[in-house]
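Handout, page 2. Input:
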Amino acid sequence: MIETMTWLQAIVLGAVQGVTEFLPISSSGHLRIVSELWFGDDAGASFTAVTQLGTELAVLLYFGKDIGRIVRAWFVGLRDASARGIDYRVGWYVILATIPIGVLGFVFKDQIRTAGRNLWLVAIMLIVFSFVFFAAERYAAQKRTLEKLTGRDALIMGAAQCLALIPGVSRSGATASAGLFAGLEREAAFRFSFLIAIPAVLASGLFSLKDVFEPAGEGLAATGPQIAVATAIAFVLGYVSIAWLMRFVSHHSMSWFGGYRIALGVAVLVLLSTRVISS
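Output:
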């Protein structure tokens, strides 16, 4: 049965989206968990996708100079081969990295909105991918800067971004880990991770606008004003979150997030096993 979302739910979920979107702890997983714990229902994949538009606006603002420079270089490079520097190549790399998730996101859109939101799966993914973080930090070379990014790196990180379709994985965590395994420095891996998320998340959010007011199956249906407020909150907190994260990863390991993910995943498994919450 579809229930109407309350203002408290919209505000809380918008805040959760903003705080968790860029941290490698899975915003979709947190939205699913918080929805069930606090409200006994699921906000739905469409609500998640649309409120992500707010956090992506935060990316556009935070990386505005970089994005503008890359876009200008890409268009200039199309006309002038002598002007094809690193920014021109990064423009192509973003396009290249977006193709895999664009294809898989379209093919599996129904599964993403239904079976993929099972809390057993979310909890297991939170735990399992924590060990991917640990391995990336321990064994990856982390020597190359963004200026030495290659098409191979873009494909690897683009393929890893597809894992973000599963709540509990984390888009930034999956793509940044892939970048580390490819030999990129941690800050470079996260920076490119945010860049390749822009087209995928914007497309997903715009595609889901028509569904957010009438979620398929059971869930919470939000009104237009509620979506607008939740998205605005996600934007403000998302900007603060990304600014903090870029400073944090310059000096700290992703393993800190891995420890938190394991604790949260185990807690959710316990709650599910004892039937305190349902999947």
